[in-house]
Design brief:
Blueprint lengths: L6 H5 L10 E8 L3 E3 L6 E10 L14 E9 L2 E8 L6 E4 L2 E9 L10 E8 L3
Antiparallel strand pairs: 1-8, 2-3, 3-4, 4-5, 6-7, 7-8
Length: about 130
Amino acid sequence: MRSGVSPAAATGPLVVAQDTALDDTLVVQLGGSAVTSDTAVRITLRAKLQDSRCAANVHCVWAGSVGVGLRAETLHGTNDGNVHSNQEPRILWAGQHQISLLDVTPRPGEASAPVVATVRVVRLGR
């Protein structure tokens, strides 16, 4: 979960998005949720999809790609979809919010650990 957000905030009520810009980075564990700093969007990591990235400590010609299944919730609705790091679709929309995948850990070849995704949530202000 993103620093500074309590577990209760991830399950608490959402608010109406303001007319200001938002550019937030959330860290979400598989099966868990995190909310944006303005509490307008809740992101849930539903699944890790195919991972064709290079194994840790290996130099590859092609970067590969990883995908995740997300649920994005706002007061105006819920959108389930997949996003990928290096192939389409790269963006999941939730109303006026654009969600993209920055990273997924662990990488192939790394020690077994809980799956964690880092996502970016952007809303342009008016």
